[in-house]
Amino acid sequence: MKILVLGANGQVGQCLADQLTGTSHQTILSNRSQIDISDFEATRSKIYRVNADVIINASAYTAVDNAEREPDKADLVNNLAVANIAAICADIGSVLIHFSTDYVFDGKASTPYIESCQANPDSVYGKTKLMGELAIQKSGCRYLIFRTGWVFSEYGDNFFKTMLRLGMERDELSIVGDQIGSPTYAQDIAKTVIQGLVRIEKNECEYGIYHYSGDKPCSWYDFAEKIFDEARNYGWSTPTLKSIVTAEYPTPAQRPGYSVLNSRKAIKVFGVLQSDWRSGISSVLRKLQTK
């Protein structure tokens, strides 16, 4: 199949490039300078020219706090541009694979969210991502939407790499301990997409929304603790960690207090393993050591 990846320079996009290497698919990787999804007409023209069987949209406005100050920019990338891509897919018969977020939920649950749970985002980021989901569903295209959360990898900017940087700069770090989620290694997300492509190629795909995230819920504090426990073995500086509550670290965007996703449906349909984020931590550290 011919696969077009939009947002190929992001962390999920770069992991997709890694996982697509060696497959039989013809892969076209596009960064923002090549296809800027916020330019609707140019995007339409270029996608029509490529005429891919599957379009993977790994582009997104992910600056959660900045979205509160720039709601129009977040809406443009996460909603309006997604609606444009979905309409193009419907026109030319391409399958759309898109990534969404645990932030579409308000965090008031006490058990992992399944795909049919009512979305009720509190942040601009979450609201624009949900609107993008709805636009895809209304478009009439065939789609896979993967909701995930707390994504980290060896690429780009993320919590994992921020912790390593701050650990070298400070002796003590205060980390929020009362927000619970599931860290997800982006290479595992990409591997799940590859399995989705197998089913698309065989015309055996169950289209719709899927949750895919890490296998063991934890707090940001717990996540940081695991990062530094492992980083110590690789010679990284490891500061003292202090657990604080959300109220002690106010942010422009409200985060869900509990955003654990139930990945059972994706595991069953695609035959994948849930993301083992502790192994992911080791993988990232090994790869960073070789850079």
Q: Taking all residues together, what is the mean pLDDT? A: 96
Shape, per Cα inertia axes: globular
In spatial order, strands of the major sheet run 2-1-3-4-5-10
Order of helices and strands: EHEHEHHEHEEHEEEHEEHEHH
Report the total helices: 10
Structural class by secondary-structure content: alpha/beta
Uncertain regions: pLDDT < 50 for 5+ in a row? none
Largest sheet: 6 strands, parallel
Would you count the extended β strands for me? 12
Termini separation: 32 Å
Measured as a percent range, the helix fraction is 40-55%
Portion in beta strands: 15-25%
Instruction: Using the CA coordinates, give the radius of gyration.
Output: 19 Å
Give a summary of the structure in a few sentences.
With 291 residues, the protein is of the alpha/beta class.
If you had to describe this structure to a student in words, what would you say it looks like?
The protein is an alpha/beta fold. It is built from 10 helices and 12 strands. The strands form 4 sheets. It has a 6-stranded parallel β-sheet with strand order 2-1-3-4-5-10, sandwiched between helices. The chain has a two-stranded parallel ribbon with strand order 6-9. A two-stranded parallel sheet has the order 7-12. Helix 1 links the parallel strand 1 and strand 2. The chain is globular and about 55 Å long.
